[in-house]
Amino acid sequence: MAMSSHLARLRALIGHDLIQMPSVSVIVVDDHARLLLVRHAGLRDGWAVPGGAVDIGESPVDAARREIREEIGIRISEPRLLDVLGGADYEVTYPNGDRVAYVTAVYRAGVADGTPAPDHDEISELGWFAPPQLPEVSLNRFTRALLRTTGHLAG
Question: What's this model's pTM, rounded to 2 decimal places?
Fold first, then answer.
């Protein structure tokens, strides 16, 4: 996972302690109502909704556009804000021990331009999933909670 210079400086001061971080999650949907899910490089915690941290001075909607462009190489249609989520389900402990409590702005958008492909730096794999498939997909805890809260996953 790429780390901003700001976060790297903060981690140098506080180590692996839990920090709260603003982030974005983007539910990308195609013309067949399938959701684009990704697997993060270096993590084995299941499929996830793409997204990432909001940089200092960046708006959440600009972060959503940037993260999708960087991670999967596409331009998305105008993102629509669905919800802002946080809490225990959105806390992550990374393999290096860093702990983050995300507060994530969740957007929904279509593909405006390009063909999705993993960047192989942050994203190792991607796939399209129809809503009826989602209950059987190995989702990480963060994504399962997010999709349930936004009505994309029953139960």
Answer: 0.91
